[in-house]
């Protein structure tokens, strides 16, 4: 006999404001338990030190997690100059010190080399796998791995505050897979010193913003029931709001749902101007609701994900 899944079947997103001191998985499990939900996942890990936007997907929304993880993200972080730490953040052990403190002019002069598409060496304390092992497990065992540099897209990197000589605050807008800890580490080196992240907060993930965020304390309050907490659940389609929308009629959507590609010639006048004709993603609307994702490729509209 097939076992019945525990919990309620929920579909949608909770935009959590993750507090400091717990992992993203721990935060997810607490919310999942509070909602008595069957299936859940998160889009984009935040380190225990970090706070801010942690999108949590429930049920069918888990199918859209990869598209959220690909979305633009905005962070604020503060560098503490003068101390390098093994984790590249305040939770690690000090491994090097420097008496040098960069001026604002030195910081501004170093920033341009970290904008655009750069190559970045991830922190050794990361979840990347090396020969089947997690890098952070190897580092904890005293076997820190040599990680190769990876492409990282930095759309914006600005100095936004200088409370004192030891600290500097920054705003970063980036793409997928960019490590803020590595960015802080490398900027400090470029300024002739060492440093680590003292404070880190994520302000945005794709269409999800701080204005949508719900504090974890609400889900830990026993006065709330799973039913009342469900009011914070946002529709699955919310995750796709920043993807250009293309409305199809019933016949066109039927063809797409059966795996057929549709010629873009037949869709002239319907294709949104902001859609990229070269492998761009569009959100398919059918009968007024988000029903699928499709890709513009080689003159065709090709189905990618049906909801």
Characterization of the model:
With 307 residues, this protein is an alpha+beta fold. The chain is 19% helix and 36% strand. The chain contains eight helices and 19 strands. The mean pLDDT is 92.
What topology emerges from the helices and strands here?
Blueprint: E1 12-18, H1 24-35, E2 40-42, E3 51-58, H2 65-69, E4 73-81, E5 83-85, E6 94-97, H3 104-110, E7 116-120, E8 129-130, E9 133-134, H4 135-140, E10 150-164, E11 167-174, H5 180-190, E12 195-205, E13 208-209, E14 214-215, H6 216-220, H7 226-229, E15 245-248, H8 250-257, E16 262-263, E17 280-286, E18 289-297, E19 300-306
Relative strand content:
35-45%
Low-confidence runs: none
Run of helices and strands: EHEEHEEEHEEEHEEHEEEHHEHEEEE
Mean pLDDT over all positions: 92
Brief write-up:
By secondary structure, the chain is α+β, with helices and mostly antiparallel strands.
Comma- or semicolon-separated keywords:
307 residues; alpha+beta; five-stranded mixed sheet; 8 helices; globular
